[in-house]
Design brief:
alpha/beta, 10 strands, single chain
């Protein structure tokens, strides 16, 4: 190697090490309420060091705690031929192999509670009217990360309903997002595979709020706001899809699904989502809807892949 080239290489390495050291010196573990304005607070927890910052966005009714829990590998729920966890089976436990602690080993990671997802314990997020619009949830997340001083850019990792929040966030603040890991995420593309009747029923069901489960969402409103937002710029992305059916195989065929849309509709929407993002699709997950609990390592590996691609300046991973 020529001397000049070697010098440049050493300088680049030195600069990178200085940046890593700087990140480590300023990044501190945090958990607690953050004021986001208008007298409201949202619970946030962050740990680890490095860039980009990974932001975990939970599904409807779920919060930060989900990303620190897993289904024990020996739990019989793994052997079920349907999504047993969704039916209340299996024991989810906090542990070091979960997504949140594992991602903190290679970059900064944050998780948070939207209003209405946690009803006990300290630092509850300030309640809001339910059902709430997804653009309000995206704005809340942006205010939260800004107020907390969590450094950009972000790799957004949404689960389920979180997919709509992440999509609006990435379209509204495109320069702040460097990648996406969609974990069995909701998408407006559902309308291309499910009937209008079933999508409307799905929306109506998700608008319902109850004292024991306050968070309620507005799917059709979110779809319209996503369509009205600027186009999503090309991003590094991975899509993970649950492959355990929602209903036991012994159940009768879903001619009019209770939830509005069927598992077949959901699976088809995940394929469309991966195509629309030019993303790699991980369709064989041996998981129900909560992939981060069933197969946390798949989620961790996908996050690492997107983080490393973002660090290398790669625009995409590809199918």
């Amino acid at each position: 190697m020529p001397t000049a080239a070697r010098s440049r290489s050493c300088l680049s390495l030195a600069a990178a090490l200085i940046l890593i050291a700087a990140d480590a010196s300023v990044a501190e573990d945090f958990s607690g309420s953050v004021a986001i304005g208008a007298g409201r607070k949202i619970y946030l927890e962050c740990t680890g060091a490095g860039s980009p910052t990974v932001v975990l966005i939970s599904g409807r009714g779920n919060g930060a705690a989900d990303w620190s829990e897993t289904l024990d590998p020996a739990d019989p729920a793994h052997q079920a031929d349907y999504d047993a966890v969704a039916w209340g089976k299996g024991n989810l436990r906090r542990g070091g192999s979960a997504v949140f602690p594992m991602v903190s080993r290679f970059t900064r990671v944050c998780a948070y509670d939207r209003p209405g997802v946690r009803l006990d314990g300290p630092d509850q997020s300030t309640p809001v009217a339910q059902p709430h619009p997804a653009d309000q949830a995206a704005d809340d997340l942006h205010r939260l990360l800004t107020a907390a001083g969590e450094p950009r850019p972000y790799v957004l990792v949404p689960h389920s309903y979180g997919g709509l929040i992440a999509t609006l966030f990435a379209r509204t603040w495109p320069d702040e997002v460097s990648g996406l890991v969609m974990v069995d995420a909701a998408t407006p593309l559902m309308r291309e595979v499910a009937s209008p009747k079933h999508v409307a029923k799905w929306d109506a069901l998700n608008r319902q709020s109850a004292p024991a489960a306050p968070e309620a969402i507005m799917l059709l409103d979110a779809f319209a706001k996503i369509e009205a937002a600027p186009r999503l710029r090309e991003l590094t992305a991975v899509v993970l899809a649950g492959d355990k059916p929602w209903q036991p195989p012994s159940s009768p065929p879903e001619r009019d699904p209770v939830g509005g849309v069927s598992f077949a509709d959901w699976r088809a929407s995940q394929t469309l989502l991966a195509t629309s993002l030019n993303a790699r699709l991980v369709a064989n997950t041996n998981s129900g809807h909560n992939i981060y609990a069933y197969s946390p390592q798949l989620v961790i590996d996908a996050i690492r892949e997107v983080v490393e691609a973002a660090r290398a300046g790669n625009a995409r991973i590809g199918p």
